[in-house]
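new request in #modeling-help
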Amino acid sequence: AQKVTQAQTEISVVEKEDVTLDCVYETRDTTYYLFWYKQPPSGELVFLIRRNSFDEQNEISGRYSWNFQKSTSSFNFTITASQVVDSAVYFCALSGNQAGTALIFGKGTTLSVSS
Amino acid sequence: DAGVTQSPTHLIKTRGQQVTLRCSPKSGHDTVSWYQQALGQGPQFIFQYYEEEERQRGNFPDRFSGHQFPNYSSELNVNALLLGDSALYLCASSLTQGRGQPQHFGDGTRLSIL
C-alpha cells in the first residue's frame, strides 16, 4: 500500500526564518512520482514540484528547495527566508507509474509566517 | 489559458438530497480526477475519468458517481447525502500521455450538508 506521512501538523515561524517541511513516503513500486502542493486559504491546490523516483538530484527554485533521499524515503521541502505570503497548508503527494494513478496525499502541514 | 474551473463555489444541501458538481479541465487536458477534502485533512481520491469512462476509483460508496463528456468536462454526482459528505470537493485535470503528469486543481466546491 502507498502512504505519505507529514508528521508536522503546524509550524510557526517569523519572517526571514528558514523552514523545512518533512515528508516520508511508503511504496512498493520501483517507479513512482512525488509532488508538493500549496493550498492557500482560497482552497485551490497549487502544484509546486514533481520528482520521479530515478532522479535524486536536489532542486532549487528561488527561495524553494527540495531534498529527495530514496534511502530514507523522504522528500523534504525547504523555504529560505520565509515571507508572510508563504503562509498556507503544504501537501506532499505520491503517485504510481500506471496511467491514471491517483495522488495519495499526506495530511498536510500548516505553515504560519508572521511579520 | 484557462485553468481548471469548478461550479458552484458553495452549496448547501440537506440530508437525503442529491447534488451535482461540475468541472471544466485545463485547456489541452484529457483526464479529470475528483477528490474529497474533509476539514483538516488531505484530499482523498474519489475517481478518475478518461475517454468518458471511469478508469480508477477510490474507496467511496456507489452513492458517488460521475460522468465525463466529449469535451472532457466532468460531473460528480452524490446521492442520498449524509452529514459526513460535507467537504471541499476538488477537481483536477491532467494529461494521460506520459507518466506522472502533475494534476492541476480547481478552486473546489464547498459542500455543506445540514
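bot summary: The radius of gyration of chain A is 14 Å.
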